[in-house]
Design goal:
With 452 residues, the chain is of the alpha/beta class. Helix content is 38%, strand content 15%. The chain has 2 domains: 196 residues, D-Maltodextrin-Binding Protein, domain 2 (3-Layer(aba) Sandwich); 211 residues, Periplasmic binding protein-like II (D-Maltodextrin-Binding Protein, domain 2, 3-Layer(aba) Sandwich). It starts with a helix and ends in a 7-residue tail after the last helix.
């Protein structure tokens, strides 16, 4: 299957480069001057280690360039990262190149914070050698690129399922368990400290020894569940609220029922006292973990974990999301040629193969899907188990892009939607009540003004 065709239908969507910046005179490093760049990124400690190794390799190959890693610990949400960028912009200390939150990309691109990349892409033959949705444009001009091709994944502990008498789930994305079958198997896996399962007399939901599943509960991770049931959040044109549709309400309530009705999923919010889902999966406290593809980096490094990967459960139809952080070159850089060189390096699996073999990223370069030998280079290893192609890569054929081009999407989530979802997960409100109220807030807010 040619992924240039598979991915193309999901393709995404006032600064003009002066040729004199890149042509004539050459780069500072080419003139023998040492160039210092800063590279900003976030993520887990494992991601920090992987990125620093890639930057070290870049410096070894480009001895005239020194790169200072600017690591922001954790998976920062859009509001936190945006506050950091505002502070750095105000103090004149913006980095040269690196990650940027997708929810804020359009806002900052429109305000000319980023270098326009079209001429550079064309000059270096990168405009057609990458997945079409890799490049992110505003007003017909390209200002960034997705760092990787990422999606939602369902990990499982084989031993936990076997001990619970649950068959291993399908890997093919279009043959996944239907939601009711999924929920039933979660009840078989979930057990309290006395060996009772949900629905059995005497089951104690306050003393659960093993849960069926943990879902990452944050904005992008909601989309596949909503889409699978025919729901959504905001229409593609950024003008209509969909989160209070019957399909959306039903999908969210099904997730909430896993927490508050079936007790097969823990609420992992503050004060839960539970280990991280990856730890719970590894120590037998959890059957499934629904999270981002990048967590192959952590899961694949757990040598004693007998893990597998399954197709996402289906409500009405299979669904998948294409998402990632964004990589940009900041317009404020004093070294645009070297900064672009670094961005190219980080986008080229031939230079940074460990970022892919380790499970952190999936490539955005077409050849690493279309060429069987190159596909094998990054997937033929224990980090990517049997079923990875069917459950993950093949599911990208139905993926939809995270809707980051909707204006004010970050504020819509922060001000209106996140509080509603939180009230649902803690059992304070039903999905119908919370989402209808949140939808009204969005409609009344004046934030629905289309797309970038």
């Amino acid at each position: 299957m040619k992924y240039v065709k598979v991915f193309a239908f999901t393709a995404l969507f006032a600064l003009t480069l002066c040729g004199a910046v890149f042509a004539g005179g050459g780069s500072d490093s080419a003139k023998g001057k040492e160039v210092r760049l800063t590279y900003v990124y976030w993520g887990s400690t494992a991601e920090d280690t992987a990125v620093k190794a890639a930057l070290k390799d870049f410096m070894a190959a480009n001895p005239g360039i020194r790169v200072e890693p600017l690591y922001l610990p954790g998976d920062l949400d859009g509001s936190t990262y945006n506050a950091k960028m505002k502070s750095m912009a105000a103090s004149g200390t913006l980095p040269d190149v690196g990650y940027f939150r997708p929810e804020e990309f359009g806002n900052y691109a429109e305000k000319n914070f980023f270098l326009q990349l079209d001429d550079l892409m064309k000059r270096d033959g990168m405009d057609s050698s990458y997945l079409p949705q890799t490049w992110l444009s505003i007003g017909g001009k390209t200002f960034g690129a997705y760092t990787a091709a990422e999606c939602q994944v369902m990990f499982y502990n084989k031993k936990v399922l076997q001990d619970a008498g649950v068959p291993l789930p399908p890997a093919k994305f279009d043959q996944a368990w239907k939601w009711d079958e999924f929920a039933a198997n979660l009840r078989k896996i979930t057990v309290d400290k006395n060996g009772k399962h949900p629905g059995e007399a005497g089951f104690d939901p306050k003393n659960i020894a093993r849960y069926g599943v943990a879902y990452d509960l944050w904005s992008a991770m909601y989309y596949p569940t909503l889409w699978s049931n025919g729901g959504g959040v905001i229409s593609d044109d950024g003008k209509t609220v969909l989160i209070d549709s019957p399909e959306s309400i039903e999908a969210v309530q099904r997730l909430a029922d896993l927490i508050n009705k079936d007790h097969t999923m823990p609420y992992m919010g503050g004060g839960s006292g539970l280990p991280a889902p990856s730890v719970m999966l590894a120590n037998g406290q959890l059957g499934f973990w629904v999270t981002g593809q990048w967590n192959f980096l952590e899961i694949g490094g757990m040598k004693d974990l007998p893990f597998g990967v399954a197709a996402l459960p289906i409500q009405k139809k299979p669904a998948q999301i294409y998402l990632s952080g964004v990589n940009v070159v900041f317009k404020a850089t004093k070294h645009p040629e070297e900064a672009w060189l670094l961005q190219k390096w980080m986008m080229d699996p031939s230079k940074t193969l460990n970022l892919y073999t380790s499970g952190l990223w999936m490539p955005t370069k077409l050849a690493y899907y279309n060429d069987p030998a190159r596909l094998k280079e990054w997937t033929d290893n224990p980090v990517h188990p049997a079923g990875y192609k069917e459950a993950v890569l093949d599911s990208m054929s139905i993926s939809r892009n995270e809707p980051i081009k909707i204006r004010n999407i970050n504020q819509i989530w922060g001000d209106c939607l996140n509080p509603a979802f939180e009230s649902i997960w803690i059992g304070k409100a039903s999905a119908a009540d919370a989402l209808k109220e949140a939808a009204k807030k969005v409609r009344d807010s004046g934030l629905l003004v289309g797309t970038y």
